[in-house]
Amino acid sequence: LERMDQLRLEQKGCVHAHMDLLKIALKLQGFVDSKLVGDVLEVALKARTLDVEASPYDATGYGAGIVPIETNEGRKEYRERQILLMQEAEPVRERLADAYDGFMRLAFEEELLGGHFSSDGSSTGGGSNSPPYVAPERLAKAQPGGLPWRKNLIES
Q1: pTM value?
Q2: Which tops the pLDDT comparison, 154 or 96?
Q3: Phi-psi region at 125: left, alpha or beta (left = phi > 0; alpha = psi -120 to 50)
């Protein structure tokens, strides 16, 4: 898998995808509404709670429940909670995507974005003649035993 495949392969029901929203929100926190960051944090905490409750570890001492995914009843409960969480997270995910688009419009000139945004600020999905701007770190790869991916971006 490569980073460029993430959006294409992402599953909105995956609890780890909900936790990844927090990572994105925290990276943008200086540029987005604090209410949005709080809403993303709530979704991420619910996702992490479900993840821990379905794990083989006993976290009941910390107030977590148990979702016995090795049983039919446990799998059913997990699936139901996963669907509810996905439905709760969707409007938050959309608000975060809009905030990210707003940040991109502020941070980069139109020429760099390659026509990804129209003059009214809405996303166009990229110009027909030029691909949207792709930050170099999105294409970086780390090799085992090699430099970390960020250092691979530095030209020597």
Answers
A1: 0.66
A2: 96
A3: left
